[in-house]
Structure formats: structure tokens, C-alpha cells
Amino acid sequence: MQLAHLLLRHARLNPDATAVFYGSAHWASHAEWAARSAGLAQRLRDAGLAPGDRVLLFMRNHPRYLEVLWAAWWAGLVVVPVNAKLHPREAEWIVDNAQARWGFVTADVAPEPLAGLERQVDVESAEAETLLAPVADPFAVLVAERAPDDLAWLFYTSGTTGRPKGVMLTHRNLMTMGLTYGIDVDPVAPSDSIVYGAPMSHGAGIYAIPHLMAGARHVVPASGGVEPAELFALGQQIGPLSTFAAPTIVKRLVDHAEAAGLTPEDAARAFKTIVYGGAPMYLADIERALRVMGPRFVQIYGQGETPMVGTALSRQVIADTGHPRHRERLASVGVAQTPVRVRVADAQGHELPTGEIGEVLVHGDSVMAGYWRNPEATAAAIRDGWLLTGDVGCLDADGFLTLKDRSKDLIISGGSNIYPREVEEVLLTAPGVAEVAVVGAPDAEWGEVVVAFVVPLPGAASTPETLDQHCLTQMARFKRPKRYLLVDSLPKNNYGKVLKTELRARLAPV
Ligand code: AMP
User: Fold this and answer.
1) Is the separation of the CB atoms in 423 and 479 below 8 Å?
2) Which of 233, 319, 322, 449 is the most buried (most CB within 10 A)?
3) Does residue 455 lie within any of the structural domains?
4) Which atom of ligand 1 is nearest the CA belonging to 281?
5) Which residue, by CA, sits nearest to atom 7 of ligand 1?
């Protein structure tokens, strides 16, 4: 069994209904999708690409993304989806590191040829039409034999602390992720539609797998990104959408719903489920999201090294407002997903008692095979089969995991540990605050001091004094920021994560 079989299965079972939409227009049925992917698989094979060879995808979200992914798997190849916001020189570094042979691009993302590729195909060109021309009988095109532990996807980390690393994801890893989605995240019906607003090179694209498993529908917005008005309209036209969204995207959807005067019932007509994760979701933000858009949220916690599979906070737990620990649970990332065990350990890897803070470890079939051609990094990340996530958190008696921060974001000031997230949660409840990020700045006396970057709401009169007054009433004095910097926006990567390394660099002594 390998991922290509998922497409064959639905090309047989459910050949004719629209499986892929581009905007609200028909792009492909399962049979058409299979005929194009089989055609490309055959042509890649004829061109000499052999199972295990790497194929790069460096493009904005596009229906061809799905066709190329499944064509590559059909031919037994390994896909290397690259963040479309990377500079072409950074993409070339990945081409070289992965030794990718062919690349599929859109011209907006890669206007020039990338060095190192044997062939670069613009998916909107006549050349792509020919390469993806449907074959008459897709079932006659051999699906490459792949073992469960063979590579399917090389996922490059964002590399905010050094060069990106290629996370080796196998067919088993991605099958495991797909199968557990219906159990831990959201059951999927064939009439459901997943919309790709967030980049398909990351979690949003990975969620194509559970939706193809269920024979559901795939929607690529015409804009290729997240335009809240467009997504709400698409949901009204096609039927309620499911989507994966980083907390910053959730915020944009909620802002839109509020500004447009939409009710939770309106939101229910546009969205079935919004899965959020990838970065901290603050309590104040999820409470507002639930108020404005109703109970259609599920949280997941994972990382490229165990894609989309770590913990999940279900819709039911989120809705259980009568539970005595509801707010604590809402501020957590939920419980271990079905195929994995999650534990919190000390620096030596020993499991810590309930409630104690340590590093989060994950064990199970979703955990990567290692880093591509980087045995040292693999040995540092996987110990006795347990993935060391680099995230710090604690488990409660019911198994709910609360994340504190990435270990590298921890601030140590005057010998005390301060978790930026705790300070951020408090500042977000101050009047007039839209967004906030807290980092440590080097300090001769304290080692580090707490600095808050604050984006005020439009027209708000926040000042360092009012913010400090708010913190004084809510938290221990030693955790209070020593400086408040009011800024227009926070630097974020393409996946919506705040770039704390960049904020720290602004504070570094010159
Ligand atoms: P990536 O490998 O790019 O998906 O990034 C994974 C990292 O994002 C994790 O190690 C966490 O630090 C963070 N992350 C993922 N999901 C969540 C979540 N639900 N809440 C807070 N942080 C998260």
C-alpha cells in the first residue's frame, strides 16, 4: 500500500462527481485526476525518473499541486514541496540538498529557471498540458511498488535557526496521519470539502490525504491564498468548507465575520470545521472566535517531524463549557492523538510526574524516519524511538498537554524561568491590544529581560504605562516586561508563525 492507491480507489468507487474545484468551478473528477496523474507518472518514468528520485514543487496553491503529488507517488517518487515565499536562492539550496531532478513551479513564485534542476515545468504552460494529458486507462499505468517505510515527502523545516533540514516522511507516516484525522480531528464525509487557503507545502496540503481517503472534495481558491471574503463566498456556493488555519489566519476570518456582521449561523453555512494549530492560540483569541463563528474549531499540535499528529483538542471538549476545567483545557493543546504516545521528560529523557514542566516527546508511527542525509541531527532529535520536539510543556492528570514555549524561546531573567506565552496571554487581555510577541533581550544585570512587542488595535490609546498597569494587576512583578515596543505589525513567515528570531535580532546589542 502506498499513497497513490488512495486515488485509484476513488477513481474506481466514485469516478464522476467533481473531486477538485478551482474557485467554484469544476477542475477534475476523481477519474480525471487519476487519468492526469497516471499520465504524468508514465511520462516521468519514460524520462528516466526512478522510484526514490525527488521532485520539487515550488508554486502557489493550485489544483495542479494535487495532480503532481499523486503523479509523483504513482511513479514511486519523493515529493519536495517548498514554501512559496522562499527566495529562489533558498529554493535552489533545497534543490541541491535534496538532489531534486525535476521541479514543478508557477511563474509568480519561480519566474526564472532554478539552478540544479534537470527540468523545470511551469504548471500553467502548454508543456504542462502535454505532460499531464490524461491517459485513456489510468488503471493500466503501473503503480510503483513502495514499502511503508519508503520516503514519500521531504518536508523542509522553516530554518529560522540555521539551514533548513529535510524531514523524511514515509508512506507509513502519512497514512497514519490520514487515518487518524477522522478519529481525532474530524470525521470526513464524501460531501465534505477541504479548502486550501494556507500553503499546500505545509499542513494544509498534508490534509489532502485524509480528504482523499474519504473521497471528499478539494477546493483551491482562485486567489491561491487566504482572502476571507472569498472563502466565505466559496463555502456558501460549494457547501460548508473544512480548512487548516494557523491562529493568525483564524484571526483574519474572525475579523472578517465580525466586520461583515455575520452571525454564527452564517459562519456555519460557510465552514464546517476550522482546524487550527502550528503556533500558539491564545485563550482570548479562541474565546472570541467561538463567540463570533460558533463551535466549529478543533486544535491540533504537531510538527513537521510528526506531521499534524501530536495532540488534538476536540470540538466536543471545546464546546463543554460546563466542565470545571474548561478554560484550562481551552488553553491546552488537548490529548495525545490515537496513534501516538506523548510524554514530558527532563533533559536526560526521564518521564516527569504529572504537572511538571519539561520537554514534550512523541512516539508512534507518525514520527519521521529522520533528517535527510543528516545523521547527527537525527540522533539529536530521536532518542530510543522518541521524538524530542523542542517544545516545553506539562501534562495534567487527564492527559491534556499545555505548551509553555519552544525551549529556545524561554527567557531566563535573574535566574527565574519566564515563559513568554504566559506574558503574551495576559497582555492580550489588555484593552486596545491586537497582537503581541514577547522575547528576551540580553541584559548585563539580569542576563535577559522581558521585552514585549505590541501591535495596538486601530485607534487604541495603549501606552507602555497603561500596558504595565495591566500587567501589574495580573502577574508576578518579575515576569513583567521591562520594555514595551509599540509596532505596526509582527514579522511572520508564510505559515503565520511569528519570527521571534527576527524580533530578538532587533534587540541585540550593536
Ligand atoms: P512546523 O514543524 O513548522 O509545523 O512547526 C511546529 C512547531 O509549531 C511546534 O514544534 C510548536 O512549537 C508549534 N506548534 C504547532 N502546533 C501548535 C499549537 N497547537 N499550539 C502552539 N504551538 C504549536
Assistant:
1) yes
2) 449
3) yes
4) 20
5) 303
Q: Is residue 173 part of a domain?
A: no
Q: Could you identify the atom of ligand 1 that is nearest to the CA of residue 403?
A: 21
**Domain assignment present for 498:** yes
Separation of 14 CA from ligand 1 center, angstroms? 35
Query: Comparing C-alpha atoms, which of 74, 190, 77 is closest to residue 139?
Result: 74
* pLDDT digit string, tens, across residues 80-109: 999 998 889 999 999 999 999 999 999 999
| Number of independent structural domains in the chain | 1
Range of the domain at 425: 411-507
Between CA 355 and CA 248 the distance in angstroms is: 29
Alpha-carbon distance values, 400 to 253, 312, 385, 388, 419 (Å) = 27, 9, 22, 18, 19
Residue 322 has a CB neighbour count (10 Å cut-off) of 6
Give the atom of ligand 1 at the shortest distance from the alpha carbon of 203: 4
Tell me, what's the pLDDT at 161?
A: 57
Residue 127: CB atoms within 10 Å: 13
- Is the per-residue pLDDT at 445 higher than 90? no
Q: Which residue has the cell 515550488?
A: 58
Who lines ligand 1 at CB under 6 A?
158, 277-280, 299, 301, 303-304, 333, 389, 391, 403, 406
DSSP code string of 88-142: HHHHHHHHHHHTEEEEEE-TTT--SPPTT-SEEEETTSHHHHHHTPPPS-GGGSP
**Looking at the domain assignment, is residue 283 inside a domain?**
no
Say how many Å lie between the CA of residue 421 and the centre of ligand 1.
Answer: 13
CATH number assigned to the domain comprising residue 426: 3.30.300.30
Q: For 195-242, what is each residue's pLDDT tens digit?
A: 999 999 999 999 999 999 999 999 999 999 999 999 999 999 999 999
- The CA distance from 77 to 121, in Å, is 16
Ligand 1 atom nearest to 158, measured from its CA: 3
Mutating to test ligand 1, I would choose from 173, 201, 299, 301 the residue with most ligand atoms within 8 A of its C-beta, which is: 301
